[in-house]
Amino acid sequence: MALGEPYDLTGKRIFVAGHRGLVGSAIVRRLAREDCVILTAGRETLDLTDQAAVRDWFAAERPDAVFLAAAKVGGIGAHGQAPVDFLHDNLLIEANVMEAAHRADVEKLLFLGSSCIYPKHADQPISEDALLTAPLDPIHEGYAIAKIAGLKLAQAYRAQHGRDFISAMPTNLYGPGDNFSLQSSHVLPALIRKAHEAKLAGDETMEIWGTGSALREFLHVDDLADACVFLMRDYSDDGHINVGFGEDISILELVKLVNEVVGFEGAIVHDRSKPDGTPKKLMDSSRLHALGWRPSYGLREGIAQTYAWLEEAIAAGDIRGLE
Length: 323
Ligand SMILES: NC(=O)C1=CN([C@@H]2O[C@H](COP(=O)(O)OP(=O)(O)OC[C@H]3O[C@@H](n4cnc5c(N)ncnc54)[C@H](OP(=O)(O)O)[C@@H]3O)[C@@H](O)[C@H]2O)C=CC1
Ligand SMILES: C[C@H]1O[C@H](OP(=O)(O)OP(=O)(O)OC[C@H]2O[C@@H](n3cnc4c(=O)[nH]c(N)nc43)[C@H](O)[C@@H]2O)[C@@H](O)[C@@H](O)C1=O
Known about the structure:
The protein has helices at about 20-30, 50-60, 75-80, 85-105, 140-160, 185-200, 220-235, 250-260, 285-290, 300-315, and strands at about 15, 35-40, 65-70, 110, 165-170, 170-175, 205-210, 215-220, 240-245, 250, 265-270. It is of the alpha/beta class. It has a six-stranded parallel sheet with strand order 2-1-3-4-5-9, sandwiched between helices. The chain has a three-stranded mixed sheet with strand order 6-8-10. Helix 4 runs parallel beside helix 5 (about 140-160) and helix 6 packs across helix 8. It is about 40% helix and about 15% strand. The structure holds NADPH dihydro-nicotinamide-adenine-dinucleotide phosphate and the ligand C[C@H]1O[C@H](OP(=O)(O)OP(=O)(O)OC[C@H]2O[C@@H](n3cnc4c(=O)[nH]c(N)nc43)[C@H](O)[C@@H]2O)[C@@H](O)[C@@H](O)C1=O. The site of NADPH dihydro-nicotinamide-adenine-dinucleotide phosphate has 24 residues, from helix 1, helix 4 and strand 6.
């Protein structure tokens, strides 16, 4: 594989690390449309923090390409509960997978970082060049440092060993297969669940965290998965690439949109003991757009699709975080 060349997925053995997660399951859905062999390994068979196990698995399975969507992930309420896990697990996962991929001659690897890598008060919209120009948001600093280390490690494998390892930095994601736990989830699944449960219970109010003034950008996970396949095929360079939606919305406006879609008509109350976090983090995705990719889901359409999926999943008793 020559660096800088397009990568043809046809007939390739492709490992989706983290295949049961929000992103990993979407990448598996998207790859089902390709003529390739999808390899997966659940944590119970392959703990990616175990270097020897990861080396052995790669030596045995010999994937041609890897989507690295496995990580310790959570919303703003989760980071403070497990700062070691967000730093330690993510460092080990990315180091083990990239090292084993190198040893097993993997042709291409895409590492998933996050918009959290950027400074808390970065100029908006946030360009890839904003990396390491100012302090991070202390709330998720460990996770952000692990993600920065991951993109730097991918660049190092490219420089030292000529490995075609690339990095994508997604904005906030949502969609089918998300984590709906009220303690550890991201904001959009939490709001959809709260509105749904308040509607069913006939509640007069629904509680949100913080002031609702923070602004967030949301990309449907099926759009992200499509962007990941696009980048795997058509991007080969050492710079990380922002994968955003292009517009942001205040949490308060988001709540109103969710409640319209779900059909909850009660009032909003605020738990101001919870943080707002980063005030705004709209990414500049113009480099990705210049490569020829754009998202397809609008936010209202994406929330409606996610809620329809949630109702079916609840009926089937198959929801992460609602156990
Ligand atoms: N969700 C979001 O809004 C955003 C996510 N991202 C990034 O996208 C990627 C995927 O995130 P997302 O899909 O939301 O996260 P999820 O928590 O939904 O999925 C993460 C997956 O990684 C697996 N995993 C975690 N630790 C291990 C381990 N030690 N060994 C094996 N597997 C492990 C989990 O397995 P198990 O099911 O067993 O727990 C899970 O399937 C991450 O890199 C994240 O940083 C970036 C920006 C936004
Ligand atoms: C995606 C990216 O960015 C993530 O950071 P974040 O965007 O701050 O996380 P969040 O999705 O939990 O949104 C939090 C915002 O939303 C408000 N908010 C209201 N009500 C609820 C609520 O009920 N739950 C949550 N979680 N937030 C709420 C809350 O007050 C705050 O303003 C990282 O965790 C990290 O995972 C990462 O990679």
